[in-house]
Amino acid sequence: MTTLTSPHDLIAAIPFLIGYHPVDSLVVVSIKGNCIGMAMRVDYPSDLPESAYDLLASHLQRDGSTGALLVAYIPTGRSDGEVVLKDLADAMDRIAVNVDESLLIQNGRFRSTLCSDSQCCPADGREVPAIDSSRIAIEHVFAGRAMPFANIEALTESISPLVVSEDEKWISRITKFAVSEKAKNLTKLQRDGATAVIDLAGEFALGRGSDDLELVARVIGRLSDIQVRDFALGSHTDEDLDTYFLMWRQLMRMAPIGYVAPIASLFAALAYESGDGALAHRGLDRALADSNGYSLALLLRRVFTAGWPPESFAAMRRELHPKVCAGIFGLQGGVLGDKTF
Questions:
Q1: Contact, 160 vs 250, CB < 8 A?
Q2: CB 37 within 8 A of CB 17
Q3: DSSP characters over 59-70
Q4: Would you call 72 helix, strand, or coil by DSSP?
């Protein structure tokens, strides 16, 4: 994330940080040194106890934050924005995290609660700037990132099932690749699944995406095996994270009922690692709707809700990957395609 140098920058950056334009929300952005850390969004509070604000602050403490940016998107008819921001600022003070900016946004206008200059921040606020003409938006577009969704409903729609997921022939094609834990050739099937994941990622990297439907069906089917799923969880690097993100999003939308949970969990993990917490939670919603009680989705929900820093999650994933490879391929190090383990 680029450096934020003004309230305009902060207002423009938040939709990119959480993936959509928030309303009726309280947003907290972590600052670590001179860099933006994680961003958290919660529904605009009503009569919250002090402990609830302390819980929000604890996530920044765990993230190693040195500062915080607070933004309240005040619902229509509410006038307690300053009180809410003060309660949150007090919680930050209790953990020695400095509040670098504190903004109220309501009815298309904003002002800073830290600014006493009526010329800069009049009582009725200033007009919220258009995001599409901001420096932040321009930098993100040049970096190849999509503009934020209009709202959380649009974000959810972006990962909804495609029509093909209900096609009987497509379902049959996937089912033939499903892995039974009682299969006599289980290890062979797991190796085939791991290889298929790498091969399909290669197709996406070359811009061919899901053109090879047989390979797509093979990956979706083989991911029914936990070992293949865990291999897939650790198969990306920082360099190809975007490729895998696009791949899991597409496969999640193409997967039929009964095959969504592992892919949606993988997608959620990458979304969280990319700093997109809202999309990560929507991915977990899809996983648990497909398989209520799916263990990886429940684990990820606890991790995300606890406010684990994305880099800590990524480090855990990288640490586990060699062990998964050893279980599938019977080695501690080796090469599969252009991947080294």
A1: no
A2: no
A3: HHHHTT-SEEEE
A4: strand
Residues 316-332 have pLDDT tens digits of: 888 888 888 888 887 54
Separation between Cα atoms, residue 54 and residue 58, nearest integer Å:
6
- Which of 102-106, 277-281, 297-301, 325-329 has the lowest average pLDDT? 277-281
Q: What does DSSP assign to residue 143?
A: T
> Tokens at residue 85, please?
């921001």
Which residues, in sequence order, are bridge partners of residue 25? 43, 73
Q: Tell me if 106 sits within 8 A of 71, measured CB to CB.
A: no
Judged against a pLDDT cut of 50, whether residue 333 lies above it is answered with no
CA dist 286 and 159 (Å) reads 9
Query: Which CATH topology does 7-152 take?
Result: Cytidine Deaminase; domain 2 (3.40.140)
CA 7 to chain CA centroid, Å, is: 24
Q: Are 299 and 51 in contact (CB under 8 A)?
A: no
Whether the CB-CB separation of 125 and 111 falls below 8 Å is answered with yes
Instruction: State mean pLDDT over 329-340.
Output: 55
For 223-269, how does the pLDDT look when each residue is reduced to its tens digit (9 = 90+)?
Answer: 999 999 999 999 998 888 889 999 999 999 999 999 999 999 999 99
E strand spans, the chain: 25-32, 35-43, 67-73, 98-106, 109-112, 126-127, 335-336, 339-340
- C-alpha to C-alpha distances, 308 to 138, 154, 176, nearest whole angstrom: 30, 26, 38
CB 234 within 8 A of CB 320: yes
Range(s) for CATH 3.40.140 in the chain? Answer: 7-152
Q: What six digits make up the tokens of 6?
A: 């003004």
Q: Distance between CA 112 and CA 103 in Å, rounded?
A: 4
> How far apart, in Å, are the Cα atoms of 328 and each of 139, 189, 194?
42, 9, 8
Contact 256, 165 (CB under 8 A): yes
Please, which pLDDT band fits residue 144 given cuts at 50, 70 and 90? Answer: low
